[in-house]
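Batch job 17 of 40 flagged for manual review because the log was empty.
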Amino acid sequence: MRFRLGALLLSATALCAQTAVPAYKALKYPPLREIKIPQVATFTLPNGLKLYLVEDHELPTLRGTALIRTGNLFDPKDKIGLATITGALIRGGGTHSKTGDQLDEQLENIAASVESRIDESFGQVSFSTLKTTTDEVLTAFHDVLTGPEFREDKLELLKTQFASSISRRNDEASGISQREFTDIVYGKDTPYGWQMEYDTLGRIQRPDVQAFYKRYFFPANTRIAIVGDFNTDEMRIKLGRLFADWTVTQDPVPPFPAVDKTAHPGVFLAVKTNVTQTSFMLGQLGGELNEKDYPALEVMGDILGGSFRSRLFRKVRTDLGYAYNIFANWGANYDHPGLFQIGGSTKSASTTEALKAVLGEVEKIRTSEVTKEELEAAKQSVLNSFVFNFDTPSKTLNRLLIYEYYGYPKDFIYQYQKGVQAVTAADILRVARGRLDPKHMTIVAVGNPKEFGEKLTALNIPVQDLDISIPEPKSAAKEKAPADAESKSKGVALLREVQVASGGADKLAAIKDLRQTLSLQFDASAGGMKSSQVNYWLAPGTFRQENTLPFGKVVAFSDGKSGWLHSPQGNMPLAGPQLKQVQGEIFRSFIGLLLSDRVPGRIVNMTAPNTLQISDGGGNTVDVKLDPSTHLIASESYTQQQPAGPPSPVTVALSDYREVDGVKLPFKITLSQGDRKMADAVVSEYKFNTGAKPEELAKQP
């Protein structure tokens, strides 16, 4: 029989027409699958170590977690970051028998992992492995948990990485708003509101890490949970033998510090001028997971800002067009209050209006009951997302371990589900009225107030400025030497001797602009890269630097107050550490530095024979050592803000002086950072008074 294509298509079309397509509202979904709690075999070893074992033979794999009662809430105030460093170094620093790199290679070769970390209120060492390599990975897990080496080189590497993250913490407005909101609500002077700084990080040494580990990592303070393809009795015996040598004892760990529940109301503004949007965060302390009203509060948070159908999304984004993203949630922790927070971003001009709209929605949910549709949708959303905490045996065991760790009842899962199912519109109104108070909320805004439409004072809430500057480490900051009248007088006299040796103050003052062309060779330890560089200086403080590098051209410009950076990735404004670095370059410009006695606000101080210290009111300080035979500058030493990482001591050695139009200038420059040589530069040309104009130097490529 032959079929024609046209006839076949017509038949299919007719069949579809006869088959009714149900509307989406008529679609029926099966109820959520019931959460099943696996049988957990629990044991306590003679050394006090608790074991939780769950067999799961679906796949030939094993996963395990050691949970230790510790946390960064136990950090000493002068060494904030110690717990986090310790947690990373337990695995990264290797064991007595293997370095961290050797462990990496061993585990990668067998598709296994062993990891460690310390969070706010717990420490964790975990592993995953195939069944065939169980013994090998368990041995590595044991060695990492019980015998970390905390090698010095890995500690220094971690400190450098964390210092880099400190230097970048003001890059993103959203990160600033979240950090400052958290710190203010909990209190900046409490462990919940502390943040790592260069100084606290710099004080952390290997003995501190060893002592922190020793205090909290002992068998009676540790729980190990393992799920996977094994026999329970065999695993219990295996772990008993493996950890029999871990016999360390310590006093019981004290309770974690309590949260200060004092409210910190007000509007807190962090000025960030290089943004076109304002990132905001507002809210207050939340609650704990085991509170009777937690289910109602969580549903309330979902109705306010949990999804595209939420009130905030519909009002602030869809109706008013103030924000692209907006969210709200009632945060709760196991053993201390979490945070109720509403966050988002809006264009600068609508900052105040957006905050008014948000506060209006908070007041609205405290005024009248939510609709039946809102309530049911939010309850289903909360319940649906909750079950994903238990969709694998491994997740379920981890959740049960956490419940046990924080002292929650074994049936808390079911209590919570029943609590959400029972939430009513009246409950939402009751908890909103009882727990939300717009007058006592903390509001953090990060943006450019010059671009705001309405001023923040229109909120009728006190506005405070936030200082988000990153404190320099005291150990690295260049200390100003005491400057009395005598030392300043001697300093100016010595500087004038340098001016005479360099060609005379009048010749130096006649230089209105300078162009320096040089080639730069980085040391092998610094990458071994070559580059050519042209530097422009225009009195009194305009600077442009053009670098030609193997990967492209990098150009920086600044007038001393602001500036920009061009690279192969595009153009960006100079800000933060990069702007401070360029401002330091302007301060140390050779001609300007030699004429410091003529610059208002600069202090020239003789600190030792043939040694000057020159400083200004902007935090710049440089120590200048002179060649005693020529009275020319032999070296400059200063602390330089790095683009990533803490400020670093820098020394610039100047030599091979030659006369250019009656002025003696260095043609060889050697740059060192700390005790490490970084680069050699050879100058090929100096040009004076080229007629450069500020607007020409400011032109972007």
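Reviewer: the log was empty due to a logging misconfiguration, but the result itself is present. The first strand starts at residue 41 and ends at 44. Unflagging and moving on to job 18.
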